[in-house]
Amino acid sequence: MINQRSQLALKVEANEGTVVVPVAADCILCEDLGFNPDVQVHERNPMRSTLSRPLAIVGRRAGEITGKTELKGSGTAGTAPDISPLMKAMGCKETIIPVTSVAYTPIDGDPNAQLSYTAQMLRDGKVFTLAGARGTGKLIAELGKPLYIQFGLKGAWVDLDDVAMFDDSAVYDAPNPVAFIDPATNFSLNTYEPLISKFELDFGVKLGMRPDVNAVTGVRSFRITGRDPKGSMDAEEVAKATMDWFAALIAQTEGALAFAIGLTAGNIITVGCPKTQLIGYSPADREGIMATELALKFNMNAGNDEWSIVLT
């Protein structure tokens, strides 16, 4: 069996924790797919004449599907991209303005607003299925590479028979991703444009398992219980008079972070974090050039708006 022959399919559930079988149209183009089982095993150790141990008892079964996917538009402004279900599974609210834009922002705290998903990873026909799945996510922007969304989906691990791989030859969005270089709108923080090679925005989603003794897996689903979005960037060091990172740190300064890439309608990506706070400062070396590793925190503005990703 070949690792490269792998697929991820994600389908919204009608009833939380009840498997809905995905189809080819539910596939999302991914890299570095992996599966991490989380199986409870109870070791028994009764006292008796022998030192040997009896059978261990297997309890609840959960798992996590990990990977990353390119962040790009659908090719048509105002049409949701392939990764729409993944973004919503990671605690994102999707706002569509037809023929104009698709925006992703943090969801509010209402549990009824959280959609649950059946996630399937197919690996050359072997299937790993999670029910009641939700996830965590991180935007990774690295110089010269496409923007990526790194994810981890957690759910109840359901045992299903192996299936043939989907015919996904025509289901993915047509546009190629745009490289993080020479952005349409320069990368800036509080109007200052640093020289950087990498930026990360961790959605900071907190997940909680919902145990259920009545479920065959012992798990009903995973719920989003909170968030604490943070991030980082590396900036070339400059004179204090140009940018004093340490002063911004101790002054608890908040400022808008923003950039946009892409020039073609349907594949333009704009990222914004209106209340970005510097919470860590560490000198670094970049091939002999002084640099600074900056830890960032993305604070609320009015609420549920710590960050936004808008596709136009």
Which structural traits does this protein have?
312 residues, mainly beta, two-stranded antiparallel sheet, 2 helices, globular
Task: Describe this structure in a few short sentences.
With 312 residues, the protein is mainly beta. It contains two helices and 18 strands.
The percentage of residues in β strands lies in: over 45%
User: Got a strand count?
Assistant: 18
Mean pLDDT: 96
Number of domains: 1
Describe the model.
By secondary structure, the chain is mostly beta strands. It has one domain (6-41, 59-164, 176-311). Helices cover 4% and strands 51% of the residues. It has 2 helices and 18 strands. It has helices spanning 84-89, 245-250; strands at 6-12, 27-28, 31-42, 57-70, 92-97, 101-106, 117-123, 126-142, 148-158, 185-189, 196-202, 205-211, 219-227, 230-236, 254-261, 269-286, 289-299, 308-311. It has a 16-stranded antiparallel β-sheet that branches. Strand 15 and strand 16 form a beta hairpin. It is globular and about 75 Å long. It starts with 5 loop residues before the first strand and ends with a strand.
List the helices and strands and how they pair.
Layout: E1 6-12, E2 27-28, E3 31-42, E4 57-70, H1 84-89, E5 92-97, E6 101-106, E7 117-123, E8 126-142, E9 148-158, E10 185-189, E11 196-202, E12 205-211, E13 219-227, E14 230-236, H2 245-250, E15 254-261, E16 269-286, E17 289-299, E18 308-311
Antiparallel strand pairs: 1-2, 1-7, 3-4, 4-9, 5-6, 6-18, 7-8, 8-9, 8-11, 10-15, 11-14, 12-13, 14-17, 15-16, 16-17, 16-18
